[in-house]
Structures are given as structure tokens and as C-alpha cells.
């Protein structure tokens, strides 16, 4: 059954944002530094909502020369809504058959991105991981954010 996971927002000051959400009663659940992509992900949740309804903060590090990050979602603060699905291939096929573009196909059998009719990014995460299969396995991204 489909399950809401999180909403992602891009932040310029991760610690100030964590402190802000702590004032509302949320707590930091986990944090990942992704060296290759030069960004940090911080997941927050209300007590008892861990893994159920989270906020994902994305902090794009400044470029090595201190300038703005190169890759920051096109400057959009709002990133995506994320859902866990039973079968990511079936879900993507249903969306594609209805005429929607899977701009980040589920090549790895785990994660895909699609945009709503107004261009809101939606992340689909497979519960577990499926074996790569065609036509998704070798499909190129047709866009990012
Ligand atoms: C862990 C999972 O829930 C994610 O959302 S990772 C998705 C990934 N995020 C990034 O690459 C963050 C850095 C990037 N520069 C950005 O600002 O998004 C991703 O594919 N993001 C694209 C998106 O549409 O959210
Ligand atoms: Ni996400």
C-alpha cells in the first residue's frame, strides 16, 4: 500500500532550520553527508512520527571556491514529496501510460522521480529493492528538478 514518507525542502542554514523545527517540537532523526553530491540530508520528525511523516532538509554545500552551490534544484526551496510504493515499476508504468514523464526512471529498482501536472517533484521509493528490468534499467534521466 502506498505510504507517505516525507517532504523535502532545500535550506541555506541547516542548523538554524533544525533549531526552528525543534521549537515546533520536531527532533532530528538522522543526517547524511553526501560527499559526491556535496550535500547534507537531515531528517526531522515529531516524536512517534519517525519513518512515518518526516521533513527532509537538503543543504547544498557551497562550491569549493565558496560560491553558490552548482547543483541546488534550480533554486527551488521546495524539493519533493516522497512516497513508498509496493511496486515502483508498476507505479511508473501506470504514470507513463497516463502520459506523465518519469523524469528520473527507477533504473535501480528503488528510486524514481515524476512531476505532477504543475511540475511538483514526487519521489517514489520502492519498499526494499527490485531487480533492474527493462525498459527502466537503461532509461536516461529526462530532467532533474
Ligand atoms: C533520500 C531521498 O529521500 C532523497 O530525496 S535523495 C534525492 C536527491 N537529492 C539530492 O540530490 C539533494 C541535492 C540536490 N542538489 C538537490 O538540491 O536536490 C535528488 O534526486 N534530488 C532531486 C529532487 O528532485 O529532489
Ligand atoms: Ni527525499
UniProtKB/TrEMBL annotation:
<dbReference type="InterPro" id="IPR037523">
    <property type="entry name" value="VOC_core"/>
</dbReference>
<protein>
    <submittedName>
        <fullName>VOC family protein</fullName>
    </submittedName>
</protein>
<dbReference type="Pfam" id="PF00903">
    <property type="entry name" value="Glyoxalase"/>
</dbReference>
<dbReference type="InterPro" id="IPR004360">
    <property type="entry name" value="Glyas_Fos-R_dOase_dom"/>
</dbReference>
<feature type="domain" description="VOC">
    <location>
        <begin position="3"/>
        <end position="127"/>
    </location>
</feature>
